[in-house]
Amino acid sequence: MALLELSGISKSFGPIKALSDVDFAVGRGEIVGLMGDNGAGKSTMVKLIAGNFPPSAGRIVLDGEAVQFHRPVEAREKGIEVVYQDLAICNNLSAAANVFLGRELKRRVGPFRFLDHRAMTRRAAELFADLKSETRPGDLVHKMSGGQRQAVAIARTRLAAAKIVLMDEPTAAISIRQVSEVLDLIRRLRDQGIAVILISHRMPDVFSVCDRVVVLRRGRKVADKPIAHSTPEEVTALITGAKETA
Predict the structure, then answer these.
(1) Entry's SUPFAM superfamilies (predicted)?
(2) Contact at 8 Å (CB) between 199 and 231?
(3) Lateral strand order in the sheet of 80-83
């Protein structure tokens, strides 16, 4: 049984139909690449899954239960986390402070409650160790490489015990060496049984880490097949319309 299953999903914004009758699924410990040109409907799919708005039509089933999200907090409570392209982390804070941003640990001293920096530093170190990242809890984000920043954002999803992580263009605008680091982080999420939906324009990344690739074009799904049974050339043809379906 799929961990997340979307059936007959459509979404309209006034006269604009962003998605039309799309079926999509991802299983535990599976990495699915979501590809398509600008305007294909990828961002709308991500926002639907992440709870930014409900679909106009269709059904979403998570862990065998029909769900409908109206706010991102509702999706997060069900184990869906998003790592956006801008990462939404604070440059002036440490790695540990970013991991716990909005979820800070506190300790009580008499009638007062204080931030438990020691406990947050210790837990952040454990999360980075699990991800085999060289990022240190006390490092300031503004001094980090792109790969280390991704590690901070991914560690935050692990803190929340995510079942599904949506990653929006995680390797955009970083160096080749850092791309390798980020792809390794994605593999480690998979190895821990977490489903990953990778939204990317980078064909080498998708074919390196994904189990399946789903291609959207003009709001419709035109392909959903195992990576082993496709090629970058075929996916490019599907994205551009040189090939209708696969």
Answers:
(1) P-loop containing nucleoside triphosphate hydrolases
(2) no
(3) 80-83, 164-168, 195-199, 31-35, 212-217, 220-226
Residue 109, domain member (yes or no): no
Helix (H, G, I), strand (E, B) or coil at 144: coil
Among positive and negative, which fits the CA dihedral 68, 170, 226, 230? positive
34-54 tens-digit pLDDT:
999 999 999 999 999 999 999
Rounded CA-CA distance 128/134 in Å is 7
β-strand partners of 26 = 4
Domain contains 35: yes
* Cβ count near 120 (within 10 Å): 21
Residue-level pLDDT at 19: 97
Q: How confident is the model at residue 160 (pLDDT cuts 50, 70, 90)?
A: confident
In a domain, 101, yes or no: no
Which of 189, 183, 187 is closest to 162 using CA atoms? Answer: 189
CA–CA gap between residue 122 and residue 35 (Å, rounded) = 38
Reported pTM: 0.90
Task: Provide the residue range defining the domain that includes 228.
Answer: 4-89+161-240
Which tokens sit at 215?
Answer: 């291609």
- Answer whether residue 58 is part of any domain: yes
pLDDT at 156 over 80: yes
Q: Which residue has the tokens 């990317």?
A: 200
pLDDT above 90 (res 85): no
